[in-house]
Amino acid sequence: MIDEKILRTEEKIIFALRALYSEHGYKPVRLSKFEEYELYAHNKDFIGDDRIITFNDSNGKLMALKPDVTLSIVKNGKDIPGHKQKVSYNENIYRTTGREGRFSEIMQAGLECIGDIDSEDILQVISLAAQTLELISEDFVLEISHLGILSALLGEISEDESFLKKAAEYIRAKNVHDMEKLCREHEIPEEQAKRLITFTGICGDLDTVMGQLEPICTTEATAKALAEFEDVGLRIRELGYGERIMCDFSIVNNMKYYNGIVFRGFLKGIYEGVLSGGQYDNLLKKMGRKSGAIGFALYLDRLEDII
Q1: In Å, what is the CA distance from 27 to each residue of 21, 67, 84, 178, 275?
Q2: pTM for the full model?
Q3: What does DSSP say about strands 140-146 and 245-248: parallel, antiparallel, or unpaired?
Q4: 92 and 74 in contact (C-beta within 8 Å)?
Q5: Exposed, middle or buried by CB within 10 Å (0-12, 13-18, 19+), for 164?
Q6: Residue 267 gets which letter from DSSP?
Q7: CA–CA separation, 85 vs 104, rounded Å?
Q8: CA quadruple 143, 286, 171, 147: dihedral sign
Q9: CB 214 within 8 A of CB 226
Q10: Which of 83, 107, 123, 267 is 20 to 30 A from 57, comparing alpha carbons?
């Protein structure tokens, strides 16, 4: 039995999270500190940083210190029909941080569910994300979104890559003014422009957001995505977190890798998100796998202020 008096706060958090995840069937895994550089070079957009610490191994192969956990888990897993790979981790990653962009060793904790996932798995992961935040502080907010709605909406309006990129940026920034200007510049039809401008910045409680989305999601593709999101939303109410779980469609993860439900978590007193996650089926497709996937990561380095 470990005497908790000798543990640092972050170590107590890690042990508590490991127990929580194990209770729900997620087995802890250990990963190598490095992978072949090629893995990260092909997925720099997913990592969000093209600066990676590299070195040559004894055979001359270019290796890299791990800047991401999910890529390693996906790379080392296999597709088995009817099987779900449910793993948890606490691993150090190596990324640039701060304004000066210096490399840091950062501890992450999180979990991944990969395989034939269904709505129950999605709900469980969202629930565990909320419980993860609550374990650290009861004063938290978990924001959720659905990239399927955004993807369908943009796909119906334009195929122009420059337009789609800027539109996603303005939605992320809740920038209605520039979205209106963008639609005028690209001569987007009035009805489509109105739907996109209304969508920009949508956030609030589940009931409010659903009421705002219904007039926008009038086509087959958007209505289908909305139905999926509404089903998850109704189930989320059953978790009992009330106003702790909100909707915010400014959560725009890279749609080359993410799809469906995405979310991020905040704690009072910390200006940036401390937890992020969502469905990333598109990443598995890009890496030649057929499974679905959802997971999240908690950034322990961002907890210093409240720890």
Answers
A1: 8, 22, 12, 46, 20
A2: 0.90
A3: parallel
A4: no
A5: middle
A6: E
A7: 30
A8: negative
A9: yes
A10: 107
